[in-house]
Design a protein that fits this description.
The protein is of the alpha+beta class. It has two helices and four strands, in the order E-E-E-E-H-H. The chain has helices at about 65-75, 80-90; strands at about 5-10, 15-25, 30-35, 50-55. The N and C termini lie far apart (about 50 Å).
Amino acid sequence: MTAAPIIATIMWEGRSIRLSYRSRRWGVIDHLEIETANREALPISETGYLSQFFGPVEPALTIEEIIETVRTHLETAARNPDWLAAEGARKQLTLFE
């Protein structure tokens, strides 16, 4: 039987991010969804949405472990030169559009 999802919202770099984790999805595998409130890009997803299947992890992860893992993943990916350039361009004000 699939457990109900554990849901949390975190803030990262001004973005609201919803995390939804199900252990033993379909009774087989763990599933984590990461989604920004308005599908704003993340260093781990250009679309602001990421679905990850893994495990199964025994025992199931706690919400604290999920949050810590996602934050670490975001911080590591945010050091990528491509992400730094994209963020710089996003934050740069333009006179003409």
